[in-house]
Structures are given as C-alpha cells and as structure tokens.
Amino acid sequence: MTDATTLVTRIPLGKRLAFIGSESQISGDSRLILSLENTEMIVPRLFESSETKLKVSLLQVDGFVIQYRYILQMTWSVDGDILLQFCLRESIQNVRQHAHRDNTEDSVTKSDFKEANFDAGQLDTDLHRLQTQRAFFCRLRNQHSPAVRLPTQILANIFLHFCEADNSNDPMVSPLVLGKVCHAWRLTAWNLPEIWSTVNCCLSKRRYLSQVILLEEWLGRSSQELLSLSIKFRDEEEWCSSQVDIRIFEVLLMHCNRWKHLCLIVPLNWHEKLGDVEGKVPNLVELSLRPLNFDFVIEPLTGFSNAPKLHKLHASNYYLQNLNFPWARLTSGVFGGSSMDEALEVIRRCPNLTMCHFDNLMGMEATYSDSLVTNHKIQSLKISMNSSARCGIFLISLTLPRLQSLTLSIPEGHPPPLFAIEGLLDRSRCRLKVLHIKGPFIDERDLVKFLIYNDQVLEFVSEPSARLAEQFARD
After folding, report:
1. Looking at the whole model, is its pTM more than 0.90?
2. How far, in Å, are 329, 356, 370, 404 from residue 391 at the CA level?
3. According to the 3-state scheme, what is the secondary structure of 52-93?
4. Helix and strand element counts for the chain (H, E)
5. Are 345 and 368 in contact (CB under 8 A)?
6. Given a cut of 80, is residue 447 above it in pLDDT?
7. What distance in Å separates the CA atoms of residue 315 and residue 287, rounded to the nearest whole number?
8. Rounded to an integer, what distance in angstroms lies between the CA atom of residue 392 and that of residue 418?
9. Bigger pLDDT: 359 vs 297
10. Which one has a higher pLDDT value, 281 or 32?
11. How many other C-beta atoms lie within 10 A of the C-beta of residue 121?
C-alpha cells in the first residue's frame, strides 16, 4: 500500500485545476504525484481574492482511490484586514486511478481510517466556525441597507400588510420568509405577535411531527393575540379517522381561551377532547367543524354550548340531536348533510339568523316536527338539495317576512320551483330582490308571469343543468 499523498500548490484565481490525471506514477514507498493536466475543477471567483490554495488528500486501496478531500481556502482583504476564510469539503467514492498495488499489503490500515475520520471531524468543526463568522460579517454588511435602517414601527406595519395580502398556497410561509432576509428583519418579525395570530395548517403524514413543533413555536410568538386557526388534512382518504395523532390538537387546546376563528376538520378520536373546551372559549366568534373524510358522526359534539360570543357556525355531517350550541345567539349558519326536518328545526332554534345556508339537504327523516316555521330575521337563504329532498315540501313550511335573497340548487328531474317560491313570497309578504335557481329548466312564459306578479325582484338568474342547456340549444 502507498502512503497517503499530499499535494499543495498555489494557482492564480480562476485557473482550472485537475487532481486526477493520466500521468500518475507510484512505486514502493514513493509519493503519488498527480498531473495538473486535463483540468476539470474551476476555482470560483469571489470578491477580490488574489490567491487560492488547494490541498488534496488521497487514500489508496487496491488501485482505487476510495476517498479524497480537498480544502479550498480563499482570503480577501478590506483595508488590509482578513475578513473570512471559506472551507469546502468534498468526497467521491471509487474513482479509478492508474497505480500499482504494493504486494505486501491489501488494504488501508486502521490508523489511516482513524486519521481520515479525525480530519473529517475537524473539517466539520471548521465549517461551523466559518459559517458563524460569515453570518456575523453578513450582519455587519446588512446594517448599511436602507431597508434595515427603517424605524421598527414602519417596518412592522409593512410586515403586517405583507402577511395580510399574501395569497400563497401555504399562508404559514409568510412570516417565515420575512425571517430569512436578515437578522434585523427576523428580530422584528419574531417580536410582532400580530403576524403570528393566523394559522393555516394542512396536516401531512410525512411532516406531522415537524408541524407539531412549528405550531408550538408559532403560537408562542403570537403572545396574547386572538387566534384565527384553520387545521385541515392533506389527502384525507389516507388518514384513519379513529387513529390520528392528537398532539396537534393538544397544542391548540392550550390556547383555547384565545380562539377567535376556528376552522377544524375533526378526526373521530378528537371529538371527545373537544369537550375539554367547555367554558374556556370566551373569545370564539366563528366556528367551522366537519368530520374527517366527510363521515357522519354519531358522537355528541360538546364544548361550545357556553361560548358567549359565538355567532357564526358552519357544521357539516353531524346529526342535529348531537349538537349543542348557543342557538339563540347565532346570526349566520351553514349546515351540511341535514335532513329537511332538521333544517326546519335549525331555523326554529335560531331566531336571530340573518344568513342561512343548507348544503346537500336531504329528505324528511321525521326526527323533528315539519310544522310551519316563522323566522323574522333571515334575509338570505341558500339551499342545495340532493335527490331525496323536495323543494316544494320544504318551502311550504317556511314563513320569512324579511327574506331578500333566495338561492336554490335543485337536482335534475325535479319540477321547477316557481310555484313553491310564489307561495313562500305570498305567505311571508316579503320583498324578495334576488332570486337564483340552478338545475331545472324554466319555461320562458312561466318566468314572465312570475316576474310580472313579483315586480320587486331586481335580479333573477336561471342556470339549467349542462345537459338541459345543451338539449335546449339543440331544440
């Protein structure tokens, strides 16, 4: 085996240099001399460096170079002072060399490997030290930037506007981007609780543990600001609803007294924990809950019956009998997957609703009374029905004296709803201004009669289904 060979040379900046050449020779205990021809590596030009020194160390095994390391040290001066040395390390496995094997040994000795490991550790230490030095000098340089020299309050206002206006796919990125610019920006951003008060997190199986740590730090930086939280799941079908790690939700629970807006997709095994917030959400204004994978949940949903400020609710795929909210305080409600009798019961329970939306409304289940319901506050009503629901049966049970906007989305095959709508308007004596009907085809003559009789309607939109529209165009 040959000794480890060291070649030190000085070259002008920018000269091409090769450390593997075809003119290599080795014999006995002599050192391996590498040709500097056929050069491949380009020494980069950095600042005003006048000289670069390259050191190459090689280990020889059975005619193969199994590893080489090189240190690229660059120095440059400003007013005669050396500012920084940059150390670069590289390794390549199994690079063939033209060399002869010593007949007395077949492998590198243990001492060679120990020396190599020591050198690698020393290089890691030097790299860390030099990176620290580089960060220090970059910080000195950045202090002269006009953007950094702005008054802190002005910079903070700019950051606030930036985070509010950012429309990136991952809203949690915004404050982190600001912190990457420089040390001064990071100090300002890290000490500005307002930009950390909004969390939009899409949970990933692969990144879950790091997301737990990030959420803890994120909410810690929000200080005592009220929180707007949105927790969703990427690729919901890949998650098992009864076995989702609960650590993310436990982090949220520690700050439940600061919840203001909460949008949460809830795995089955998180529902019981929701009960722990009962009486602990004094600032909650808006709540949106949906089970993971759109599964219907029969578990009682508790924890929000004593939310004193809650007035906006979005709840999907829950049975009404399992929901317990301050119904009389609600002014806006969106409900998904309700039966027609549950929808009527919701309107009955919420006398202060001004906006009500039923998505995927289903047929009657006879769980609640279908008797006439009167609500004196609803101004906007949106209903999207599935094939089992009947628009006429639902509307005939309603009296809404202040209704101004009505949107109906009806499956193909259902009869046009104009007759049921006229009955609702006559009964309610309301002045409807906006009417949108999606799904069925409405005969032009019926439409003219309706608008003549209900001349208070200022906006009417009829959107037949794509198939009906195509058929009408052919006819």
Report:
1. no
2. 28, 16, 14, 18
3. EEEEEEEEEECCEEEEEEEEEEECCEECCEECCCCCCCCCCC
4. 12, 21
5. yes
6. yes
7. 8
8. 9
9. 359
10. 281
11. 10
